[in-house]
Amino acid sequence: MSNSGTAPTPTPPPIPVRFADILFVADVPDSAGGNPKTRRVVILTPNDALAAGFPIVAAPVTTRIPPSRPTTTSSSPSRTRRGPGTPLPA
Q1: Nearest one of 66, 64, 18, 26 to 42, comparing CA atoms
Q2: pTM of the entire predicted model
């Protein structure tokens, strides 16, 4: 079969990469070295090194934020276990 009459899809121009850019990169492993998938990475190579043709160094960015304790917490006084607080004899 031929695709007569249809133009090929043009290739988009390359995106310039700069220091501190966050990009989606395919096949990035998780922190355990497995489960490769598309993940966010931040570019760590300085701009002058990128312009000179040095390799791109990037670090993956996590999207899981550990739960934090609320800032409104306070400790309550502890109470010794002496039984019910009634004036009746035990």
Answers
A1: 18
A2: 0.55
